[in-house]
Amino acid sequence: METIARVDDVAATILTRTGPVTSMKLQKLIYYSQAWHLVRTNEPLFEDRIEAWPQGPVVPSVFRKHSKKYTVTSWPSGDAKLLTEPERETVSWVLDKYSHLSAESLSRLTHIEPPWRIARGLSGPNEKSSEEIIKERLKYFYGRQIADVDSAVAHAAASAAMEGVEFADDWQDVLRSVASSEVSAAEAIQREIDRVRRS
User: Fold this and answer.
1) Considering the entire predicted model, what is its pTM?
2) Confidence of residue 191 (pLDDT cuts 50, 70, 90)
3) Which positions ≥6 away from 10 have C-beta within 8 Å?
């Protein structure tokens, strides 16, 4: 395995592309860079731990360097040129997908996704927590987002079965149609509502 990037170099790379961003937005872009690099390469982008803080995922080692700054304009302790090509590609891909979102939108997004929620456990909305968001959980959750149609349906059926719900074969066909974009999720739900009303 190659030597992995330092989180400081990832922060510097992000700021080189985005220009000044809020400290919250920088944290979320670093988080998504780690998550998607795990999916894309099966290796972590950096070793630093990510914790489930009330505002969403936070890398404490990065927080200590931008603490009390609302906006971060540069990252002198990092060097964008030190990232490998695959590392740069991941960060670039993440910025293409997420950098148009506000810090608050990114925070809300992480709040509805399982890795942060599971790490938070029973912590209250504003309760401090230093629980780590485990890398394996990141790889599993975000990896499912790009699974092929049959894998996605199998995961959905397995998750439902764990909750005590069995998908009928025809409903699995509906899920396949949604996953392959033949039918929108809204259409599928409306059809199911109509079916239930008729029965």
Assistant:
1) 0.73
2) confident
3) 30, 33, 34, 45, 46, 78, 83, 87, 91
